[in-house]
Amino acid sequence: MTSKPPAVVRLYESTIPSGNAYKVRLLCAQLGLSPEIVELDILAQPSQTRTPEFLAKNPNGRIPVIELEDGSFLAESNAILCYLADGTHYLPSEPLARARVLQWLFFEQYSHEPYLAVLKFWTHWGGLDRKRPDEIALWKTRGQAALGVMNQQLERQPWFSGAHYGIADIALYAYTQDADDVGFDFTTLAALRTWLERVRAQPGYVAMKPDPLGKKPTLP
Ligand SMILES: N[C@@H](CCC(=O)N[C@@H](CS)C(=O)NCC(=O)O)C(=O)O
User: Fold this and answer.
1) Residue 17, Cβ neighbours under 10 Å: how many?
2) 10-85: which CATH topology?
3) Does the N-terminal or the C-terminal CB of the chain have fewer CB atoms within 10 Å?
4) Which among 42, 45, 34 has a CA at the least distance from the CA of 14?
């Protein structure tokens, strides 16, 4: 008999809204989990995630990180989603269905988040003015391509997690939901737009915390 996995007691995230941390907050809300929240200033120089104390929790020096009741830590948003969703209807247990969820989690980290999240970070929190126009254009092209791939998949099935909403949807929703703010174009992506609405209608849905600057910047 396998023993019960240790419960989450604390979530380390950032003071500014982070899509990667939001994924964990959304799943926790939907699972009825309320870990203590510790917010770190990632815009500080150096970031509060680069202290020896935090590096002992995550050697990669990034949030989100969860702390478990046995005193251990787990980093990487999508690994955290897998851990928390295990044994629930947010992550199928059948091997192929589960691997297909992983397919979209890896897609999110390799082909989606590096473009949408990074462009959002440069635009909202600084750095866009130091980028060359061709660099910005490349990030925008690659991010837009990822949105096109998502739209194609959603023309075939309602959810990335399979027949039901689950963690692949949560992972991909985080940086897609407000990508139009930084210049991504949804006009031809009807399936993607209706999926965003379906995610927002899920039981236990919570929105991402607001941007403290309250602005909606656009790309030059
Ligand atoms: N692949 C990681 C990315 C985590 C990440 O990039 N975190 C950012 C905030 S969204 C961070 O902690 N930045 C602070 C730093 O790099 O010092 C994940 O999915 O959790």
Assistant:
1) 19
2) Glutaredoxin (3.40.30)
3) N
4) 42
Work out the pLDDT band at 219, boundaries 50, 70, 90: very low
The Å distance, Cα 168 to ligand 1 centre, comes to 18
> Ligand 1 centre from 156 Cα, in Å?
32
- Please state which CATH number belongs to domain 95-200: 1.20.1050.10
Shortest-distance Cα residue to atom 6 of ligand 1? 62
Cβ–ligand 1 distance for 48 under 6 Å, the answer no
pLDDT of residue 128: 87
Provide the residue ranges of all domains of the chain, joining segments of one domain with +.
10-85, 95-200
At residue 219, what is the residue type?
A: L
Q: Which residue has the tokens 């023993």?
A: 3
Q: Which of 22, 23, 47, 62 to mutate to test the pocket of ligand 1 (most atoms within 8 A of CB)?
A: 62
Tell me, what's the pLDDT at 28? Answer: 98
Q: What is the pTM of this model?
A: 0.96
Please determine, for residue 216, whether its predicted confidence score (pLDDT) is greater than 60.
no
Name the residue of 20, 65, 118 to mutate for ligand 1: max ligand atoms within 8 A of Cβ: 20
* Closest alpha carbon to 169 in 144, 139, 202, 143: 202
Protein residue closest via CA to atom 11 of ligand 1: 62
Does 168 contact ligand 1 (Cβ within 6 A)? no
